[in-house]
Specification:
single chain, alpha/beta, Rossmann fold, 2 domains, two-stranded antiparallel sheet, 38% helix, 20% strand
């Protein structure tokens, strides 16, 4: 039987969050069960967009600080990782601005080649290699676009970079490092998955999602957060292709099945209801939820907001594949019970819309 802890925490006061996260991990057996001295540990946070933390779109830095505090004396080598699409958009805007001056006076065919290179590339940094037709040198100098600055702005914009610096922990943008295409023979939709060097080299991945609704898959938690492991435009490709084919649940579970985080710590203090994961209103839920089985954590959290866990495509599919336990009868909840924190009037997306993308 899987074990999931629920601990109440009404706001993001640093002391309260630290105590709640520590208690949540203690209740499931402690972080020592999965982290040893010398391990490479990556915290996979959720930075869906570079919006103020009050919008409840991203993992709150207080939760990240609490986990880093616990890991501080473990002897592990810790980093924080994410691939943030809006950071790529900011870089794209800079490329367009600078390209406009370089393309002024050029003909249509020349401009077309540039836009093909920019929009059909899997890695936005490849634009630095692009040469205009008939030119010997690349269009941009190699240091003309500071991609690292753009990518790191994602962490700074939501307060996570500040916390990382406090503990001397690096923030890693998967877009800014080497990628490897990994075979995924057990995948249903994704038979190969692009992942970053840091992801592949991590001994322990700690999944740190935000408890939110999702207009396409009802609920976004531990499993959905892992789409952010896909670097560059692969994340968008996976998202759009699975949406077109009605395979989003399978796509997300394919990624989960390949990387299998060893621990999930869910930020459910202030979540999002309605048409999440970006546009919905914040809602105080007042919980930290932790477990070693991410599927069970998602099941418990979706139940807290009034969903039948098996209605959530990712939970149902992962449970069916034997990747975790998504039925509440197979989960032992420790600490506060679901019935004590369940929100009866939590606004969820239209289920009919979800059925089209499952």
């Amino acid at each position: 039987m899987s074990k999931v802890s629920i601990v109440r925490c009404k706001d993001y006061d640093k002391v309260k969050v630290k105590e709640a996260v520590a208690e949540s991990l203690k209740l499931i057996g402690g972080i020592d069960k999965i982290v040893k001295s010398g391990d490479k540990v990556m915290l996979k946070v959720n930075i869906t967009d570079m919006l103020p933390i009050e919008k409840a779109v991203t993992t709150h830095p207080a939760i990240v600080r609490a986990v880093l505090k616990i890991l501080k004396d473990s002897g592990a080598r810790v980093c924080i990782g994410e691939s943030c699409g809006s950071a790529r958009w900011e870089a794209t805007d800079e490329i367009r601005r600078k390209a406009k001056a370089k393309l002024r006076g050029k003909d249509f065919e020349t401009a077309k080649e540039f836009f093909k290179a920019m929009h059909l590339s899997e890695n936005i940094k490849d634009i630095l290699k692009f040469k205009l037709p008939g030119e010997d040198k690349p269009m941009f100098d190699k240091n003309e676009i500071d991609f690292t600055k753009h990518f790191q702005e994602a962490f700074s914009s939501v307060g996570i970079r500040e916390v990382a610096d406090e503990f001397g922990v690096p923030t890693i943008s998967f877009d800014d490092e080497e990628w490897v295409e990994q075979p995924n023979p057990d995948g249903v939709f994704l038979k190969k998955i692009w992942l970053s060097k840091t992801t592949l080299e991590s001994n322990v991945i700690i999944d740190m999602p935000k408890l939110k609704t999702h207009e396409l898959v009802l609920f976004t938690g531990a499993v959905k957060n892992l789409l952010g492991l896909a670097p560059g435009y692969h994340k968008s490709f996976y998202h759009r292709a699975s949406r077109l084919t009605g395979s989003m649940g399978d796509m997300l579970v394919d990624i989960y099945g390949l990387v299998k985080p060893k621990l999930t710590v869910m930020d459910g203090i202030i979540g999002m209801e309605g048409d999440g994961p970006i546009e919905g209103p914040p809602r105080n839920i007042g919980v930290v939820v932790s477990g070693f089985d991410s599927i069970s954590v998602d099941a418990v959290c979706s139940s807290i907001i009034g969903l039948d866990p098996i209605e959530v495509p990712t939970t149902r599919i992962a449970t069916g594949r034997g990747l975790g336990k998504g039925n509440l009868k197979d989960i032992k909840v420790v600490g506060t019970q679901i019935s004590e924190v369940r929100i009866a009037d939590f606004k969820i997306p239209d289920k009919a819309r979800v059925d089209n993308f499952e």
